[in-house]
């Protein structure tokens, strides 16, 4: 055991820290009162409300079917005892028959038939359950999938950043947890039944309850002294640097890095580094921490537990020497058989209780998802409201705005004390070096985040006062962060304004303005093309030569459609033009939405956007100001999260050693040097 090897003074004394193989494990120390039973009891009772809610919810999904599944589990719980009892009967009758030389054929026949009947019923129950369970599992998964899907889709960005949102949950695991619950109930019935049966057997064969205690001695010791990691509150992290390095290098095997690795000619470097990390990792164990935790128990405890497991054998041997007439062969056989079944069931039960605790923590997380409230709170004021609806654009004022991303580890603010005013209908260009805060600023304008301090005013009112839905409807944004959905291209465009999604001409017009029409019409399936379709396909034992009919079919399935980065951006731009069709847009935000476009495409895009302007306020973020600054009513120049200059192009060009002048000169110089 390498306990406390990584002892870190910062870790609280209520925690136990250990290094298990490549893992660092932190376990909550347990206060062992009354041999730990009190703790166990508290934990079990703490689970009850979650169990009750969970069972009620799953029951409501399929009451009839679930009742039958539970009954079948009950049957499985008593089946072992029934089979044991009948086996005991058969053996006892046979033994008496053998002793007396006159077998009771009718009694033997009855007992055998009864046993076969129980076995046949069990097989039928099992057969039915194997068919019914997947139906219930599917219903349960769909129910919780819908629940998680709708909550995840509504979670806003700051909540995701805050790690409040838990989207690692999968509905598939819900049924497994419910099964764990049923299994624990089944095992409890089995264990109680078996113990009662053994007790009765032991008493009737004059062994008494001491024998039962001997049977469960080993499992009891195990529960008290050797808890598995799953049963304790713990955190695990991979801490071995060589293991982490190996994983990072192994990741480079992924196809997405292939082009870089081939063109960069770095495969030798990767292999050498991989070998080095592998060598330095040596024999450090990478098995699951729970497994390593189990192995680390001391030699003394192992020996004591194994001896405890053999106490019944000692009991038989002692009785055979000192009290040889006490046993019949049948009673020995039956006691041994029941004892081994009891132990197996007991061990299984303890493991299942551990799984159940894990499962209930999981279910608490699932139900907790419903309690998560978005960080960005909704307002009550309508936008634009009756008084403001005459204005075609949005007027915006920033007053002393500072902002840090939630959970950011940086010491500097992304925006620091920024103030400016944009009048309705102005075309504003935001410029500045990388990381100067331009994208952050437009995210605040779109109310994807709220300011840390200061105020954003929209038409004179705090942006937080408005209904978020109204603000979203009034904003069209085109950024390089926007992604294509794994849906058809027409859907990708139409979702800019879903209400007119079915109107093909409107989608065509948006595609024309966004510059997507040209390349989409050349695709085999045109606007119906789905990029990155979510499909499951695989093949097995198919000839790689591609000559057989099946191989030809496999080849057809492999065909993929992909488009260039600029073409993807054109589809996203078309989605923005589709958004204009709603007629509610008053603010257009374009954050480097043209970065992948060719010069002609970029020129066309800006021209089309300006044509859509019709009084709307427009905010463009760009590193290539050439196309835009001459139309700009206002240029805002950012540096290190601060607004350093603002004004028209002419005004900013006049500021000696100004940031805008510097950035502009650099671009102009590149052209003049190229020309020279
Ligand atoms: N999601 C985020 N979490 C934490 N910090 C962030 C996040 N996004 C940006 N930042 C930080 O905020 C600061 C401003 O970033 P921002 O993206 O606004 O700059 P930018 O001017 O748009 O840069 P670029 O020209 O490279 O797009 C930077 O220091 C950046 O590292």
UniProtKB/TrEMBL annotation:
Any one GO MF annotation of this record: ATP hydrolysis activity
UniProt xrefs under Pfam families: ABC_tran
Signal peptide: none
ATP-binding found in the keyword field: yes
Domain of life where this protein originates: Eukaryota
UniProt keyword list: ATP-binding, Nucleotide-binding
All copies of domain ABC transporter, residue ranges: 396-665
SMART domains: AAA
Protein name as catalogued: ABC transporter ATP-binding protein
């Amino acid at each position: 055991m390498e306990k406390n090897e990584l002892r870190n003074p910062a870790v609280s004394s209520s925690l136990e820290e250990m290094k298990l193989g490549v893992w660092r494990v932190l376990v909550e120390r347990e206060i062992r009162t009354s041999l730990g039973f009190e703790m166990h009891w508290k934990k079990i009772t703490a689970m009850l409300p979650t169990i009750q809610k969970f069972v009620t919810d799953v029951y409501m999904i399929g009451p009839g079917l679930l009742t039958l599944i539970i009954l079948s589990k009950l049957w499985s719980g008593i089946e072992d005892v029934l089979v044991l009892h009948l086996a005991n009967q058969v053996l006892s009758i046979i033994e008496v028959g053998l002793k007396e030389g006159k077998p009771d054929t009718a009694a033997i026949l009855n007992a055998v038939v009864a046993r076969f009947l129980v076995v046949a019923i069990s097989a039928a129950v099992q057969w039915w359950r194997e068919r019914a369970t997947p139906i219930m599992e599917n219903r349960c998964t769909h129910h919780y999938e819908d629940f998680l899907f709708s909550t995840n889709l509504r979670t806003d960005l700051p909540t995701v950043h805050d790690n409040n949102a838990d989207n690692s949950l999968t509905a598939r695991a819900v049924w497994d947890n419910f099964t764990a619950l049923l299994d624990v109930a089944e095992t409890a019935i089995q264990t109680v039944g078996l113990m009662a049966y053994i007790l009765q057997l032991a008493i009737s064969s004059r062994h008494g309850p001491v024998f039962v205690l001997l049977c469960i001695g080993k499992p009891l010791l195990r529960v008290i002294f050797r808890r598995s990691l799953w049963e304790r509150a713990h955190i695990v992290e991979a801490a071995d640097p060589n293991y982490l390095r190996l994983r990072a290098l192994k990741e480079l095997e992924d196809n997405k890095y292939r082009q870089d690795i081939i063109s960069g000619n770095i495969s030798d470097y990767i292999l050498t580094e991989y070998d080095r990390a592998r060598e330095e990792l040596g024999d450090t164990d990478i098995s699951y921490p729970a497994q390593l935790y189990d192995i680390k128990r001391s030699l003394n405890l192992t020996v004591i537990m194994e001896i405890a497991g053999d106490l019944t054998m000692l009991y038989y041997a002692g009785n055979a020497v000192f009290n040889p007439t006490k046993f019949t062969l049948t009673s020995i056989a039956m006691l041994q058989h029941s004892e081994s079944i009891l132990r197996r069931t007991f061990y299984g039960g303890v493991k299942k209780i551990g799984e159940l605790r894990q499962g209930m923590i999981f279910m608490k997380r699932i139900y907790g998802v419903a309690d998560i409230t978005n960080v960005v709170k909704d307002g009550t004021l309508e936008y634009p409201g009756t008084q403001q609806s005459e204005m075609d654009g949005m007027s915006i004022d920033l007053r002393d705005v500072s902002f840090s991303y939630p959970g950011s580890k940086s010491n500097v603010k992304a925006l620091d004390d920024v103030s400016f005013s944009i009048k309705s209908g102005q075309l504003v260009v935001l410029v500045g070096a990388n990381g100067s805060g331009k994208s952050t600023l437009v995210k605040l304008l779109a109310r994807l985040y709220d300011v840390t301090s200061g105020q954003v005013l929209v038409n004179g009112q705090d942006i937080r006062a408005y209904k978020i839905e109204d603000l979203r409807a009034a904003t069209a944004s085109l950024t390089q962060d926007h992604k294509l959905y794994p849906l058809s291209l027409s859907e990708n465009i139409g979702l800019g304004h879903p209400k007119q999604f079915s109107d093909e001409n409107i989608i065509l017009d948006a595609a024309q303005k966004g510059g997507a029409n040209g390349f989409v019409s050349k695709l085999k399936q045109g606007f119906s093309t789905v990029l990155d379709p979510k499909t499951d396909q695989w093949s097995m034992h198919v000839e790689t030569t591609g000559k057989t009919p099946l191989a030809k079919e496999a080849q057809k399935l492999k065909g993929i459609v992909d488009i260039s980065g600029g073409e993807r951006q054109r589809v996203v731009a078309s989605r923005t033009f589709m958004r204009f069709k709603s007629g509610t847009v008053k603010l257009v935000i374009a954050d480097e939405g043209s970065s992948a476009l060719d010069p002609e495409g970029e020129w066309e895009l800006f021209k089309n956007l300006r044509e859509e302007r019709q009084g709307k306020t427009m905010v463009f973020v760009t590193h290539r100001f050439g196309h835009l600054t001459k139309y700009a009513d206002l240029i805002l120049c950012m540096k290190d999260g601060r607004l350093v200059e603002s004004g028209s192009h002419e005004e900013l060009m006049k500021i000696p050693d100004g940031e805008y002048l510097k950035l502009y000169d650099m671009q102009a110089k590149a052209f003049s040097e190229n020309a020279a």
